[in-house]
Amino acid sequence: MLLRALQRLNIGIERGEVFSAARLKPDVCDRLLVRGIVVPVNAPPIAALSEFGAIADLLVAAGIETPADLIEAKAVEGLTAEELQAWQAKARAALVVNHPCRACSR
Questions:
Q1: First and final CA of the chain: distance in angstroms?
Q2: Are 40 and 25 a contacting pair, CB within 8 Å?
Q3: Inter-residue contact 50 to 27 (CB < 8 Å)
Q4: In angstroms, rounded to a whole number, what is the distance separating the alpha carbons of residues 97 and 48?
Q5: What are phi and psi of 75, to 5 degrees?
Q6: Fewest beta carbons within 10 Å, which of 13, 15, 18, 35?
Q7: Are 88 and 71 in contact (CB under 8 A)?
Q8: Model confidence over 65-97: pLDDT tens digits?
Q9: Domains in the chain: how many in total?
Q10: Each residue of 48-66: pLDDT tens digit?
Q11: Helix (H, G, I), strand (E, B), or coil: what is residue 19?
């Protein structure tokens, strides 16, 4: 699961950053979710994002529906490891909040 930090975490995760829940111990993750310090990423469908049009068919065939799915993918048939990493970087950039809203700055 991908999470978004609503506050800066003392493990090198900045406010607005998107990161894998695997970076946290499960009990810590649960506490941060309950306290609203992190939230699951709510990503739009890949089909709604024009920047992924070039690989949309490959992603759909691989069962990847959202940028979050793409970020967590280990491999996608038809993409080299380097291409996958480049597309994952684009997906991460599409999900990162550079200027969190007031609600996020609590």
A1: 23
A2: no
A3: no
A4: 18
A5: -160, 155
A6: 35
A7: yes
A8: 999 899 999 999 999 999 999 999 999 888 876
A9: 1
A10: 888 898 999 999 999 999 9
A11: strand
Say what the pLDDT of residue 94 is: 83
The torsion of the CA quartet 71, 31, 99, 84, rounded to 10 degrees, works out to: -10
- Beta carbons within 8 Å of 12's beta carbon, 6+ residues apart: none
* Alpha carbon 61 to chain centroid, angstroms: 20
Amino acid identity of residue 82, one-letter, is E
How many C-beta neighbours within 10 Å does residue 51 have?
13
% of the chain residues with pLDDT over 90: 59
Provide the domain limits for residue 29: 2-105
Name the one residue in this structure whose structure tokens are 């979050």.
68
The tokens for 15 are 């406010």
Residue 10 has phi, psi (to 5 degrees) of -80, 20
